[in-house]
Every structure is written in structure tokens, then in C-alpha cells.
Design goal:
Length: about 170
């Protein structure tokens, strides 16, 4: 996978304050100003509900600029001749996706789940966003990497909104 016009991992609008200058830019192998490094994971399975990690790599590591992941990999659980369900996930290297929110937030993003039908050996030239040329594609645009807020902040915002509604009803 290459982080070019057809294979984008971009920074979204919700970033750490030190990283605001990166909004809308392609994610690279360099650490962000806040020190975050991004990991790319390819998940796959025979159904959307049973995907397992197939391959992972640090964003940007590889033989050419912007490249991430091995050019080829072998999967032990995606049989040929049947639909395979895939998803690309991006997250900070420091945390698992489940740990991001518990740790007070962190960067994460993912593609929609997409499918392809491999032969007995997968000849798979690329994973691209819609409009690119490849054997498979996901329908939406780029993977946007944003900050995952901590649950406490979200809970406080919800309590504040509920309080305002209750207060407003009492004054009517």
C-alpha cells in the first residue's frame, strides 16, 4: 500500500493541539510534532465479523517513499475462491485500538470493510480508495486519522448537554 493520491491516510480535523498544522495532510512515517507514530494494520477474514490481523507495519516503512507494509503477504485463513472481507486500520503505535480511549485519547482511523475474491494464490495488486485502479477498493475516500477522545470528556459533555436541557425546561 502506498500513501499517494489513490492510497491515502490523511490527518482529519480532530488533532492534538501540537499537531494542528497537519490537518488535511497525508500521514507520513515521521513522528507528528506531538511525538505520535502511526501503525497500519490489515485485517481480514471470511466474514466481516471474524476478521483477524493479517499484517501490520509502521506507516512509511518500506523500500520507497510513502510505502507501507510488505509488498506481498501470505494469509493462512483466507481461502481461495471465496469472498474475503478486509479492513485497513491505522492507530498510534503506543496503544491498541481498545486502549486509546482509556489512555486519554490517541490517533486512530480505519477504512470501511471491503471485499475481494482471491484465487488459490492471491494476485492482489493494490488496495485503493474509490476511483483508483486495483483488483479491490473500498467505496469511501481516504482513511482519516483523528484523535479518539477519552470517555470521561465525552461523558462530561453529555451531562452538560442534559443539564442545559433540564434547566431550559424548568424556566419555561
Amino acid at each position: 500500500m502506498v500513501n499517494d493520491a489513490n492510497h491515502l491516510v490523511k490527518f482529519g480535523n480532530l488533532l492534538k493541539s501540537a499537531d494542528i498544522s497537519l490537518v488535511g495532510s497525508n500521514a507520513t512515517s515521521a513522528a507528528t510534532p506531538s511525538g505520535s507514530l502511526l501503525l497500519v494494520e490489515l485485517w481480514g477474514g471470511t466474514t466481516a465479523g471474524n476478521m483477524t490481523l493479517q499484517q501490520s507495519t509502521t506507516l512509511g516503512i518500506g523500500p520507497s517513499a510513502g510505502f507501507f507494509g510488505p509488498r506481498t503477504f501470505t494469509s493462512g485463513n483466507l481461502p481461495g475462491g471465496a469472498d474475503a472481507f478486509m479492513q485497513v486500520k491505522v492507530r498510534e503505535t503506543t496503544f491498541t485500538t481498545a486502549e486509546l480511549a482509556a489512555a486519554g485519547g490517541g490517533y486512530a482511523g480505519f477504512s470501511p470493510v471491503f471485499t475481494f475474491r482471491p484465487s488459490s494464490t492471491i494476485a492482489f495488486n493494490s488496495i485503493v480508495v474509490a476511483g483508483g485502479t486495483a483488483l479491490s477498493t473500498w467505496a469511501a475516500g481516504p482513511i482519516n486519522v483523528n484523535i479518539v477522545p477519552e470517555p470521561t470528556s465525552m461523558a462530561l459533555a453529555g451531562i452538560g448537554a442534559a443539564s442545559l436541557l433540564i434547566f431550559r425546561r424548568r424556566n419555561k
